[in-house]
Amino acid sequence: MSAETIQSRREWLLSDRPASRLQARLGRAYVAWRRFSANRLALVGMLIIIALVAVAALADVLAPYSPTVGDLKNARLLAPSAAHWFGTDDLGRDIYSRIVYGARWTLYVVILVAIIAAPIGLLVGTVAGYAGGWTDTILMRVTDIFLAFPKLVLALAFVAALGPGIENAVLAIAITSWPPYARIARAETLTVRNSDYIKAVQLMGASPFRIVLRHIMPLCISSLIIRVTLDMAGIILTAAGLGFLGLGAQPPLPEWGAMIASGRRFILDQWWVAAAPGAAILIVSLGFNLLGDGLRDALDPRSGDQ
Amino acid sequence: MSVAENQAAAGRGSARAVGILSSLGRFLVVAVTTYLGLLAVTFFIGRVIPIDPVLAVLGDRAPTAVVERTRREMGLDLPWIEQFYLYVKAALRGDFGTSVLTTNPVMSDIRRVFPATIELATLGTIIGAVIGVPLGVLAAVKRGSLIDQIARVVGLIGYSVPIFWLGLLGLVLFYAKLQWIAFPARLDVVYEYTFTPITGFYLLDAAIQGQWDVFHDAWRHIVLPAALLGYLSLAYISRMTRSFMLNELAQEYIVAARAKGLSETRIIWGHALRNAAVPMVTVIALSYANLLEGSVLTETVFSWPGIGLYITNSLQNADMNAVLGGTIAIGSVFIAINLLSDLLYRLLDPRTKIG
Q1: A139 partner at 20 to 30 Å CA-CA among A71, B1, B132, B293?
Q2: Using CA atoms, how far apart are residues A148 and B339, in angstroms rounded to an integer?
């Protein structure tokens, strides 16, 4: 590709007068990408998350040993070596393999929480913002009440009631993490609610249901994605905390928080059993935090770097 | 001053009084609904629990007649709304039932363990504020410099690290390898019998009684968990301080102060920081509330006998009365700090519209 064609493509993308909807969208995405990729830390964050997804997808190839069945006879609590990069645990399982498979559970938790909590918040926020009046007051009061609760402790109590397990941990985290999304969705709804294009759709006879679903919700998506990404680290830490307390994933699942808990008994002599999974949690949370910060700065220039 | 001006001034004064009253009224409404909400959630959690509450008290060998009687005595045959009313009434009396594990009333258990958590969270917040505020200020003043980068990395890791893991590594390093600190507990076993706490805050109690060996021992036990919680709050406080300071330093009164020839030190610490003080009080209060909650995991790692350890021990024994009582206790304090700091912000900051 010659320099000229690249140049003309860039001009096409940055055109002030896009000729088609596609061109406008691509142009916007290109501008956002340029802002995002100028931020080196954000790129690091993105790479970490891409690596997480790749590791989860290729776990069968990357892991040299089984994550659940160990060699109890010969390989108990071995220190890190060439054969076992991060050592082995008390059941003779290779810790590196368990961490590789654990990436799947981390993704599983994060994605499930996001697809449960974000739509709840989106629905509550847009309905409250569009309907106004008593509906708004009541829905936002409920949101504020949930916002004022201590999240981890409430999640603990929920899991205590539902019973330990990774699905119940996901549910408990989702129940406690939707309120900020409702707040954001409502704020976005209020800014577009009285705009001309909504009036036009109203005149065309669209039902409130259709207006909220087709014309308001799509506009809330980008701020919601930023917020969800920023929350991912918190979700991972809460899930790991629940796993550590024995309330999340149950053995023999290779969930990172639960792995730290099982390494706790040997922490003073075989520190590597707990050290490696914790480092994995730290790196992935860091990745989500960096990515979230970068997305916020790129997509929402109002917030600056505050 | 003319009569008209006087009246206008009086009018402004009473408008402000009305504003304060209405914001107090709003505060009360919000506080009451939030507490009712908290109780509604714990009530709901207590009811959807798969373990039958009667079964939990009597065991599965009890005759049907006894089960029925207990069910009535516990009010489980009443309509839900009436059950909730009774539940709220009991909670207001501080009656959260009896702990199956300790066989004490949950409330007396909570009274016993709460001071340990408060002591830990308070020390953590002090550490976080004392280091976090200056770090945030310096990061804002020398924006983009090395110290700003350091503050950023310190903050990012603080937001991303699993605290229980950091605690375990800290134990390996400072307890097992370097032997700088004492083993996980509140005091050495020797002192458990010779030391009588008064307030429940061991550092304070030891200082009051002049038992400096106990003080030293208590310090060696609390320093690592408190430093860890302090790190969490430092991450949050320094980040927010930086953001507030950047905001203030961009204002025109800073330019005016510079034009007046004030020293840079005076401008930063005297003028800008002072104007950022009101939102920072809120941030420090919120970080205190977060530490109370964060203590659940930290206490588990350090066998710190506070409310967090109480809740997790009860969880492992399916002792729901104790779990929910502990949840309500932490929730109440958390909500109170949240609401009070919000109220304080409204009352102190002249820029917030009152009402």
Answers
A1: B293
A2: 8
Taking only the tens of pLDDT, chain B with its 355 residues reads 445 555 555 556 666 677 778 778 888 888 899 999 999 988 888 765 555 666 655 666 777 777 777 777 777 777 778 888 888 888 888 888 888 778 889 899 999 999 999 999 999 999 999 999 999 999 999 988 899 999 999 999 999 999 999 999 998 888 888 888 888 888 887 777 777 777 888 888 888 887 888 888 888 889 999 999 999 999 999 999 999 999 888 888 888 888 888 888 888 888 888 888 888 888 999 899 989 888 889 999 999 999 999 998 888 887 888 889 999 999 999 889 988 888 888 777 666 554 3
Mutation pick from B110, B168, B320 vs chain A, by most beta carbons of A within 10 Å, is B168
Could you tell me which residues are beta bridge partners of residue A94?
A88
B331 and A156 within 8 Å at the Cβ level: the answer is no
Question: Is A32 a domain residue?
Answer: no
Looking at residue A205, the DSSP 8-state letter turns out to be T
ipTM: 0.85
Q: For the beta carbon of residue A36, count every other beta carbon within 10 angstroms.
A: 17
Cβ–Cβ contact B100 with A under 8 A? no
**CB spacing of B45 vs A160 below 8 angstroms:** yes
Instruction: Identify the domain containing residue A152 by its residue range.
Output: 44-299
**Amino acid type, A145:** I
Q: DSSP string covering B64-111, please?
A: HHHHHHHHHHTTTTS-HHHHHHHHHHHHHTT---B-TTT-SBHHHHHH
How many structural domains does chain A have?
1
In a domain, A138, yes or no: yes
- For residue B172, list chain A residues with Cβ-Cβ distance below 8 A: 267-268, 271
**CATH number assigned to the domain comprising residue A178:** 1.10.3720.10
> What residue of A is the nearest CA neighbor of B29?
A141
Asked whether residue A250 is assigned to any structural domain, the reply reads yes
For residue B239, give the amino acid letter: R
Q: Point out the residue among B37, B243, B296 whose CB comes nearest to the CB of A152.
A: B296
